[in-house]
């Protein structure tokens, strides 16, 4: 999907080097471990959404995985979302979250969970703008639990 000069799409194996570099920039030099690289090589198209700028390349991404305690309920967990510092405050995080939720919900996922630090005001704002709601104010002292349910599914189903 193209939006405002950005292509939003699933990760391709050829993107792993660029994704790793951006991940390191956004996570204080942290590297993706070999197991994640292998997983993303095989299933990255389904578990990672990237925002690619025609001139700058991959400038943002959103990573997902299934947690044991949520997968049986059809919930996928947003593990990380990040935008290159040069491209922040342009609504890219909200676009990623909106695009991924539509994609996952159309495939039958019942909901998306995430945990966001209380101090990460920008991430909290984009999640709330994308429709997430705070589920547990007391989950930990540092983080809030948020959830976005599939609007096309009943709670009774």
UniProtKB/TrEMBL annotation:
SUPFAM superfamilies (alphabetical): Acyl-CoA N-acyltransferases (Nat) (SSF55729)
Domain N-acetyltransferase: 6-149
Coiled-coil boundaries: none
Gene Ontology molecular function: acyltransferase activity, transferring groups other than amino-acyl groups
A Pfam cross-reference name: Acetyltransf_1
Record protein name field: N-acetyltransferase domain-containing protein
Annotated source species: Aestuariivirga litoralis
């Amino acid at each position: 999907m193209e939006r405002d000069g950005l292509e939003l799409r699933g990760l391709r194996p050829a993107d792993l080097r660029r994704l790793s570099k951006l991940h390191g920039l956004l996570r204080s030099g942290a590297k993706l471990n070999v197991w994640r690289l292998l997983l993303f090589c095989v299933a990255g198209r389904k578990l990672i959404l990237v925002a690619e700028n025609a001139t700058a390349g991959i400038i943002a991404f959103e990573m997902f995985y299934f947690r044991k305690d949520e997968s049986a309920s059809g919930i996928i967990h947003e593990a990380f979302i990040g935008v290159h510092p040069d491209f922040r405050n342009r609504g890219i995080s909200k676009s990623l979250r909106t695009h991924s939720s539509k994609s996952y919900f159309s495939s039958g996922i019942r909901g998306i969970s995430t945990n966001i630090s209380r101090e990460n005001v920008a991430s909290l704002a984009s999640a709330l703008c994308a429709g997430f709601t705070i589920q547990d104010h007391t989950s930990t002292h540092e983080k809030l639990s948020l959830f976005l349910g599939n609007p096309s599914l009943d709670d009774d189903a």
